[in-house]
Specification:
Layout (H helix, E strand, L loop, with lengths): L1 E8 L3 H8 L2 H7 L3 E8 L2 E10 L2 E15 L3 E9 L5 E12 L7 E12 L7 H36 L1 H9 L11 E8 L2 E8 L4 H8 L18 E4 L2 E4 L5 H4 L3 E3 L12 H8 L9 H14 L5 H7 L11 H11 L3 H4 L1
Parallel strand pairs: 1-9, 8-12
Antiparallel strand pairs: 1-7, 2-3, 3-4, 4-5, 5-6, 6-7, 8-9, 10-11, 10-12
Helix pairs in contact: 2-3, 7-10
The structure holds FE2/S2 (inorganic) cluster (2 copies).
The site of one FE2/S2 (inorganic) cluster has 11 residues, from loops.
C-alpha cells in the first residue's frame, strides 16, 4: 500500500532542504532512533527500536538518499534488520514546493510505501500498513515542528537583539501589542493528512485557498451570505468563511476538488452540466457542496428539500430552476455513488 501526506512548513525551501539533509534533524524525527551515524554522502547507519503490532524489535540498518534535486526533493530508502523479528523497508519520495508568494513557507509532499519480511510478515499487511502510516506521519510532523521551532527561535533572537529595542522604542503609543498567534492545525483534506502552523485567526476558507491552494472553494461575500465557500466538514455542509481553521483541526474536510472519487465526475457535477445548472460557475462549487449534503442525508429529495438545502447559496446569473433540476437528476443516480 502506498500512502501520502502533506506538511506546510513555516520555513523557506532552503531551510527545509537543509533540514532534510541534516543527520541530527533526521535522527530527532525518527521515533525510537538510538543512533544515526554517517557512512557516506547521504547515507547513514541507524539503530531504531520499534513496536510493530505485537512484535517489538531493535532494527539495525541504513537510511539512503537518492535522486537528490537540491531544493526540490529526493527519494529515501530505509532498511532495517530486526533479527528474529524479521526485517522492514520503507521507500519514500519527498517533494518541496514554495507555499507562499514570498517563499517564506514550504509545502512538503511525501508518498511512501512499506514492506516487511520474516516474522513481521505474519502479523498482517493491514496492521503493518497502519503502523507505517503512523511512523511516516510522526516523522514529518516532528520535522515540521523542529523546522518551525528553529525559525521561531531565530525570530525571537532577532526580536530580543539590539535592533529590537530600536523597533520597540519606535512603536507608537497605543499600538496593538505583538501577539504570538501560531496554532497547529491538523486535518484530513480530501483524504490527505495536512498539518501546518497558521495564525489562529485564519478562516478555514483562507486556509484551503491560500495555504492548500484549493481554489475551487470560492469567496463571494466574506459575510456568510452567498454560500460560495461551502465545504463538507465532518459530513456536514458548512460555510468555510464562518469557521476558523483551528476549529476544524482534527476534522475531515471535503472540498469540491475532492468530491469525485471515481474515474469521472461526481453525479452532481455531471447533472449540473447536463441540466445547464451554471453559467459563470462562481456559485457552483458551493451549490454542489450544499446539494451533496442533502443527498448524503438520506432525506427525500424533492423541490422543497432541495430549496431548503440551497437556501444559503446565492446564484447571481443562472437562476435556480436548472440548479434544482440538476440536484433532482443527481438524486436519481445510484445511492452508493453518492454515499
Ligand atoms: S464567502 Fe462564505 S458565505 Fe459568502
Ligand atoms: S452560475 Fe454564475 S453565480 Fe451561479
Amino acid at each position: 500500500m502506498e500512502f501520502s501526506g502533506t506538511q506546510v512548513i513555516a520555513a523557506s525551501r532552503a531551510a527545509v532542504w537543509a533540514g532534510l539533509n541534516d543527520p541530527e534533524t533526521l535522527q530527532r524525527c525518527i521515533d525510537g532512533c538510538e543512533s544515526f551515524v554517517t557512512i557516506g554522502d547521504g547515507q547513514w547507519a541507524a539503530v531504531v527500536s520499534a513496536a510493530i503490532g505485537p512484535v517489538k524489535a531493535r532494527f539495525k540498518g541504513t537510511v539512503t538518499l537518492s535522486e537528490r534535486r537540491p531544493l526540490l526533493g529526493y527519494s529515501l530508502l530505509g532498511e532495517g534488520d530486526g533479527g528474529i523479528a524479521g526485517f522492514g523497508q520503507m521507500t519514500a519520495r519527498v517533494t518541496l514546493e514554495d507555499e507562499s508568494y514570498d517563499a517564506s513557507s514550504t509545502r512538503l509532499i511525501y508518498s511512501a510505501e512499506a514492506q516487511v519480511g520474516g516474522k513481521l510478515a505474519q502479523i498482517g499487511s493491514r496492521l503493518v500498513n497502519t503502523v507505517a502510516v503512523k511512523m511516516a506521519d510522526a516523522f514529518f510532523t516532528r520535522f515540521n515542528e523542529l523546522l518551525t521551532a528553529g525559525r521561531r527561535s531565530a525570530l525571537d533572537e532577532a526580536a530580543t537583539g539590539p535592533g529590537a529595542q530600536t523597533a520597540h522604542a519606535a512603536a507608537q503609543p497605543g499600538a496593538a501589542p505583538q501577539r504570538d498567534a501560531a496554532a497547529n492545525v491538523q486535518l484530513q483534506v480530501n483524504g490527505r493528512l495536512v498539518q501546518c502552523q497558521v495564525d489562529d485567526r485564519t478562516l478555514l476558507v483562507d486556509f484551503l485557498r491560500r495555504d492548500l491552494r484549493l481554489t475551487g472553494t470560492h469567496v463571494g461575500c466574506d459575510t456568510s451570505q452567498c454560500g460560495a465557500c461551502t465545504v463538507r466538514l465532518d459530513g456536514v455542509a458548512v460555510k468555510s468563511c464562518t469557521v476558523l481553521a483551528v476549529q476544524a483541526s482534527g476534522g475531515e474536510v471535503v472540498t469540491i476538488e475532492g468530491l469525485a472519487t471515481g474515474q469521472g465526475l461526481h453525479p452532481l457535477q455531471q447533472a449540473f452540466i447536463a441540466c445547464h445548472g451554471l453559467q459563470c460557475g462562481f456559485c457552483t462549487p458551493g451549490m454542489i457542496m450544499s446539494a451533496d449534503s442533502l443527498l448524503r442525508s438520506g432525506e427525500a429529495v424533492d423541490r422543497r428539500s432541495i430549496c431548503a438545502a440551497i437556501e444559503g447559496n446565492i446564484c447571481r446569473c443562472t437562476g435556480y430552476v436548472n440548479i434544482i433540476e440538476a440536484v433532482r437528476q443527481a438524486a436519481l443516480a445510484a445511492p452508493e455513488v453518492l454515499a
